[in-house]
């Protein structure tokens, strides 16, 4: 497995490929789990080469404490990537990625001003900034993202459509722990008691799929927020049922052909997000 820490090193390798390969790309912020590896496995099965990146992107953290506390373990990450068959890993420094301040502002009307976009100002601008930069450097044919970050996936699909039309974006299913908790690098920061409580988030999401058969979306959301808060440990930030195509919150079930329930909640100092397709 090749490890590159500069753009020049990666580009030299990329330009040396003469067999008209397909390159699959999995961008990550490290501290990998089975969800990340499922993306690697998909890429390895579909492409000649698979490239992963490890870069904790400071521009998408609107909370400095969250950036400082984001878990890191490069040695373990490299072992996991190698075992999964990754061809190359790009691990740039912040200076390598952003040698000069990036002044461009990205906007995605209708999908970047709700849920995560509304609560984390500048977050999706930072996401678009780093993904755009990585796409320019890595030059992949396909890039893989998990559906846990559903809204982020929609942002990246829109970015690729507008600026990188030759890159196919492939969204992959959420990978969960045996008790239903969506896998996330942030789970490692949960205390033992918080970790025992965390699966309630998925239980409530599943319950919303039953409730939507009898109640309005607003009634379901209010009930689900009460269920989460009733744990005494989970502090729901939002529970929203929205059109899966537009992310517009639903007033009536009949307003959309497909709907998804979205949740963001705090457990102690850890913020978790998840989603569940309702219909």
UniProtKB/TrEMBL annotation:
Pathway: Cofactor biosynthesis; (R)-pantothenate biosynthesis; (R)-pantothenate from (R)-pantoate and beta-alanine: step 1/1. Pfam families: Pantoate_ligase. Keywords: ATP-binding, Ligase, Nucleotide-binding, Pantothenate biosynthesis. It catalyses: (R)-pantoate + beta-alanine + ATP = (R)-pantothenate + AMP + diphosphate + H(+). Gene3D superfamilies: HUPs, Pantoate-beta-alanine ligase, C-terminal domain. CDD domains: PanC. GO terms for cellular component: cytosol. GO terms for biological process: pantothenate biosynthetic process. GO terms for molecular function: ATP binding; pantoate-beta-alanine ligase activity. The keyword Ligase applies. It is an enzyme of class 6 (ligase). Its EC number is 6.3.2.1. Belongs to the pantothenate synthetase family. This is pantoate--beta-alanine ligase (AMP-forming). The gene is panC_13.
